[in-house]
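quick one
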Amino acid sequence: MARNFDVQPLDATFGAVVTGLRLAELDEPAWRELHATWLDHALLVFPGQHLDSAQQIAFAKRFGPLEFEMSPVSNVRPDGTLRQERDEGDDVVKILKGNMGWHADSTFKPVQAKGAVFRAEVVPQSGGQTGWADMRAAYEALDDGMRSRIEGLSAYHSLHYSQSLIGHVPKKGTDDYRNLGFQGDVVALRPLVKVHPETGRKSLLIGRHAHNIPDMPTEESEALLGELIDFACRPPRVYHHGWAAGDAVVWDNRCLLHQATPWDMTEPRIMWHSRIAGDPVSEAALA
Ligand code: OGA
Ligand code: MN
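structure w/ N-oxalylglycine:
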């Protein structure tokens, strides 16, 4: 059967660039094929789609209910002025900086996210890439000793923890506090090895929000989690996308980590994030 679109795998263990389709006009057969392609590659990159907000939300909803429809990830204030790196007291700048550490989304909430549709509207001249790392391939690349060491282990996930590592103590009770996710930060315990609910593949569940493996001294836990991130997030398991305005991606948050990369915040960067909700059974925290 002729494909409904073209799929060019990335030079990595995961990910593909998809062309020859309009996301805003996907019929049912093309959608089913695209969904299967997504489960297989975990990250799909769609250059030059130029979706508007309604089209982005509609596309995201094909993957399931949304955790939220549309959130800016941006250093531009509503009044058009720029948030600068030196704006130390700015909670949004701190979150943008936090995003530069490898993480999965909403792992500090009772249900972690299924994925995200993410679109570039305004991009800086250089930097401001987004990177993803394949935690399926990372798990498979572990040696037997490490695999048996981590089997059955879990870690707590917390946004307060990860932000405190970069010196961020958010201002309680503000809109930013709520909107940036601090309100949803509960005690979430998650396994280090996760089974994907749709593909059955095992993957590592780590990242900057993970801390304090139960029954392990804090230093040992930090060292182990750090070692796992360093090992997991390197070639051939990583891809960094240099954005052009109008590009969109969709990633599987159940088996990838992601990060932003630095840019000169005297330049605007405006990205739009639609977050696909996790299945409350398969993506629930252990406690
Ligand atoms: C996010 C995120 C990275 C980026 O939107 O959840 O981590 O490149 N974004 O802005
Ligand atoms: Mn994120």
